[in-house]
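wait is this the right file?? whatever heres the structure
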């Protein structure tokens, strides 16, 4: 099967880059077209309106986090069963995963719509920006199932070894999103509601392809099978994928904290500036999340097949590539600092000044974040949700929250921006400890 051929190949330094490149491109493209949303909103609605995206970020992070949790946890189980030759069981697991996702989507939509006002206030909405947030919130929340499925199915398709296909599908969705942003906002004058609707339609490209791939053409190495409910398996999948969920969910919660701190330090202007900083953070994170999502199935497959040598080789190569990506990202973003901020805010404005300061301060995080994301993802691939979840929770919530409030209390606005690189540096020590502790058990060193 194509999936087994892709995952069982003899990886070298350059062949591993070729294997992960489509996944990295896919994730980066997601980050870029989210930035395009902000550009259209700034141009056709206003600078303060950009804050709506950041204010909604904790909510959409929840949807994406749950989708990634089910996708990564389910993918690890499914790929391991395929590696063991249990294709029918893999199909049954896939069926249970899809059913559980639909239930989650229905529940999320109901809760978000019924409790809209208190949730928006909790996210940091003020009298000055809630008018921008409300239409954005209501539109996206109505389609929470689409966001869940897009996050989850993208991971499952990558797990099939279809990294190039996944990249193309995501790219089509992103281009569609950008085109519809222009149509809905510039031509039809739908305002920020048009941006939200364009985002939803763009997400649906992955769902359309997945329906063709799994149901119509039946190209997968496993298929939908009749399966009895198995909450123990679903619980195990959620637990195993919890590290990836915690990482994304904690990121959403900390953005919520940052919204409140930015408002405290700079007012509503600070919340809009924070949106641009969040775009850059997401863009950096996406590079390493794309890498890790691509190699996780490789480790899962070789863990199931018992190939120790390949686990060790891919681990060593991964450490090198994450370091290279980190250095390149930091230098590239430093060189592009002017255009990156300037496309959102006019030079000389308070928006531009605050965003430029934050942009420069967060760049050192590039050197450590890849190591941390990979370390956590490695344990997900081996089915160790406890360690993976703890690493993500400590990094994305405990350490980052402490740095946010501690450094902001000490240094004000600059402390707010320096919290992320400081947290990634401290987290690298925790990740290194965990990797050393479990090196014998999983034999990757």
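ok assuming it is, sequence goes like this
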């Amino acid at each position: 099967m194509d999936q087994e051929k892709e995952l069982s190949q003899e990886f070298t330094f350059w062949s591993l880059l070729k294997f992960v490149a489509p996944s990295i491109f896919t994730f980066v493209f997601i980050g870029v077209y989210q930035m395009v949303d902000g550009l259209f909103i700034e141009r056709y609605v206003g600078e303060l309106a950009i804050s709506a995206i950041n204010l909604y970020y904790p909510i959409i992070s929840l949807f994406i986090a749950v989708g990634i949790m089910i996708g990564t946890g389910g993918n690890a189980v499914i790929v391991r069963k395929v590696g063991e030759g249990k294709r029918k069981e893999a199909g049954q697991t896939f069926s249970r995963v899809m059913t559980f996702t639909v239930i989650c989507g229905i529940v999320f939509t109901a809760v978000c719509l019924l409790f809209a006002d208190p949730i928006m206030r909790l996210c940091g909405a003020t009298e000055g920006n809630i008018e921008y947030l409300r239409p954005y919130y209501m539109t996206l929340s109505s389609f929470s199932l689409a966001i869940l499925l897009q996050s989850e199915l993208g991971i499952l398709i990558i797990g099939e070894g279809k990294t190039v296909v996944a990249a193309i599908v995501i790219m089509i969705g992103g281009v569609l999103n950008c085109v519809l942003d222009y149509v809905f906002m510039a031509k039809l004058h739908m305002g920020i509601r048009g941006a939200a609707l364009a985002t939803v339609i763009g997400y649906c490209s992955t769902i359309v392809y997945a329906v063709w791939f799994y149901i119509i053409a039946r190209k997968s190495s496993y298929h939908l099978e009749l399966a009895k409910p198995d909450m123990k398996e679903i619980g195990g999948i959620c637990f195993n994928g919890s590290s990836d969920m915690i990482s994304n969910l904690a990121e959403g919660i900390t953005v919520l904290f940052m919204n409140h701190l930015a408002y405290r330090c700079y007012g509503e202007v600070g919340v809009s500036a924070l949106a641009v900083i969040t775009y850059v953070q997401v863009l950096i994170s996406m590079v390493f999340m794309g890498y890790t999502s691509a190699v996780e199935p490789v480790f899962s497959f070789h863990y199931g097949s018992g190939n120790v040598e390949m686990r060790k080789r891919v681990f060593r190569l991964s450490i090198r590539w994450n370091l290279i990506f980190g250095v390149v990202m930091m230098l590239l973003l430093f060189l592009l600092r002017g255009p990156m901020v300037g496309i959102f805010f006019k030079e000389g404005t308070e928006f531009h000044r605050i965003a430029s300061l934050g942009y420069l301060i967060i760049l050192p995080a590039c050197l450590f974040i890849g190591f941390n994301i990979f370390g956590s993802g490695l344990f997900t691939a081996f089915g160790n949700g406890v360690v993976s979840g703890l690493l993500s929770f400590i990094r994305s919530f405990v350490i980052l929250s402490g740095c946010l409030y501690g450094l902001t209390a000490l240094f004000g606005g600059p402390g707010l921006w320096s919290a992320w690189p400081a947290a990634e540096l401290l987290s690298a020590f925790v990740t290194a400890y965990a990797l050393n502790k479990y090196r014998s058990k999983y034999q990757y060193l």
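The chain has a mean pLDDT of 86. so i think its the right one actually
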